[in-house]
Amino acid sequence: MLKVQGLTQRYGSRVALDALSLSIARGDFVVLLGPNGAGKSTLFQVLTGLFAADEGDVEVAGLSMRSDARRALSHIGVVFQQQSLDLDLSIARNLQFHADLQGLPSHEARERIAFEAARFGLVADLQRSVRELSGGNRRKVELVRALLARPDLLLMDEATVGLDPQSRRDLIDGLRDEVRQRGVTVLWATHLVSEAEHADRVLVLHRGRLLASGTPAQVTSSLGGDTLEAAFLNATRQAG
Ligand SMILES: Nc1ncnc2c1ncn2[C@@H]1O[C@H](COP(=O)(O)OP(=O)(O)OP(=O)(O)O)[C@@H](O)[C@H]1O
Predict the structure, then answer these.
(1) What are the tens digits of pLDDT across the range 62-96?
(2) Secretion signal: which residues (predicted)?
(3) Best of 8, 10, 11, 15 to mutate for ligand 1, by most ligand atoms within 8 A of CB?
(4) What's the pLDDT tens digit per position in 152-174?
(5) Which residues have C-beta atoms less than 6 Å from ligand 1?
(6) How far apart are CA 58 and CA 69, in angstroms?
(7) What was the pLDDT predicted at 169?
(8) Pairing of strands 76-79, 63-64
(9) How many angstroms separate the alpha carbon of residue 73 from the centre of ligand 1?
(10) Ligand 1 centroid, distance to 22 Cα (angstroms)
(11) Whose alpha carbon is nearest atom 3 of ligand 1?
């Protein structure tokens, strides 16, 4: 579903992505785990077409971001680090507005909004303004919004920043449901090891390079440590 080949991005003399290659199979829930400055946001900016990297290419569903960006992007849904809902509109209006932008027929939009709102426990709040919602529910609305166009690949860039453990859990559980039922592929960037523990695969990124890739147990043993957290801390402290 996603193939990244030899991606390099420099900011002056700083190398944010260093010939990075990775691939993700359809229906996988993959956590991209990296400390601050590892290159997660830079990677997401390239994946979402905000800019082309200095070198390398990205393929989404077999479509090159360099030569066929518009079609490649049509397969992607994204939740960025920065929140971007209209605070004065209700949840329903925010979602409807986005569905209109995507050109979804209104009966389909209504069905999907109702379906996803139920999955994420938002039904009772649909007519409330976003301003009145907790941070956790705001993130859920953004996730529902990203799912409206039924993307094949969902990118989540540190989507749980600022949420308490229960809200983080609810968001991840809702998304895992989506993965199970619809086979959506998820790339979830975070610096929180606890969010990687239930992933199908973990990719450990440090200084723009992949240090390890595999199930949480495989990554723990390949990086050397009793727990994923110990292995991650050990590897990102040592790696030069
Ligand atoms: N616009 C920019 N100009 C210069 N350097 C940048 C720019 N954006 C990122 N960098 C540098 O590139 C490297 C990777 O940054 P990036 O934001 O991609 O990492 P990150 O893993 O998303 O970090 P965080 O978890 O802190 O958001 C860092 O060293 C950062 O300082």
Answers:
(1) 999 999 999 999 999 999 888 889 999 999 999 99
(2) none
(3) 11
(4) 999 999 888 878 888 888 888 88
(5) 11, 14, 16, 34, 36-42, 191
(6) 9
(7) 86
(8) unpaired
(9) 23
(10) 19
(11) 11
- Please answer whether residues 44 and 73 qualify as being in contact, where contact means their C-beta atoms are separated by less than 8 angstroms: no
For the 2-75+152-238 domain, the top CATH level (class) is: alpha beta
Residue 234: both structure tokens together = 């050990």
Q: Whose CA is nearest to atom 4 of ligand 1?
A: 11
**Pairwise CA distance, residues 194 & 151, whole Å:** 26
Mean pLDDT, rounded, for 45-63:
95
112 near 72, Cβ under 8 Å?
A: no
What gap in Å lies between CA 39 and CA 37, rounded to an integer?
5
Structural domain spans, the chain = 2-75+152-238, 86-150
Buried b (16+ CB within 10 A) or exposed e, 167-195: bbbbbbebbeebbeeeebbbbbbbbebeb
Alpha carbon nearest to ligand 1 atom 24, residue: 36
Q: What is the pLDDT of residue 237?
A: 85
Helix segments in 15-127, DSSP class H: 40-47, 69-73, 91-101, 106-119
From the alpha carbon of 34, which atom of ligand 1 is closest?
21
